[in-house]
Write a structure and sequence with these properties.
mainly alpha; 67% helix; 0% strand; elongated
Length: 88
Amino acid sequence: MKNLFTAAAIAILIAFTGAVKAQETAKMSAEQIQQATVSTQGSVPEGSISPEATLWILLGIVFVTALATAGGGGGGSAPPVMEAITPG
């Protein structure tokens, strides 16, 4: 019976130690992720453009498309005139 209690106590200690180690590893990983996130917030990878530049490019494309759709090019012909049909 004494051996059973000793084995149970050792198993509980091993499980507790494993849980503490896992928690510490997770905490370290979270801290590393936070540091990596904070260190890269203000930087843009080389060769890429900023989000603001992407937004301006998209707005430019929308503007040009709207002009082309609305016929704002200036080279278009006048809209057709409908003649009134008179009876008789």
